[in-house]
Amino acid sequence: NPPLDLAAVEAPSING
């Protein structure tokens, strides 16, 4: 499974 943290860097959704 891909790391959620890494995905958030390119496409932040929860972090905003």
From TrEMBL:
UniProt keyword annotations, A-Z: Chloroplast, Plastid
Name of this protein: PsbA protein
Organism: Mouriri helleri var. helleri
